[in-house]
Specification:
Length: about 90
């Protein structure tokens, strides 16, 4: 498993993970405080696409995905003073 967010408290994106392709699982947990964390994919590291509702959470959650080789990141939006979110692949 790869940690992509560790106690994130502000809006922004995680470090980029190189995905070699295949199925995966996105886990997110913590205090959301109204925030949403979503998994995004990119073919080139410049243009990012939301993967879908199965991997977008505003509370503790786990979802699966299947993608070819790409770059992945987690994006946190709507963070408040109570947001503290972690996520792994």
């Amino acid at each position: 498993m790869a940690t992509i967010l560790s106690g994130a408290t502000a809006n922004g994106s995680s470090a980029v993970v190189e995905w070699t392709g295949g199925t995966g699982t996105f886990w997110a947990w913590g205090s959301f405080g109204g925030a949403t964390v979503a998994l995004e994919a990119s073919p080139d590291g410049a243009t990012w696409f939301p993967i879908g509702q199965a991997v977008s959470f505003n509370q503790n959650g786990v979802g699966g995905f299947a993608l070819g080789p790409c770059k992945l990141r987690a994006s946190l939006s709507g963070a408040t003073g109570t947001t503290n979110v972690s996520a792994i692949l």
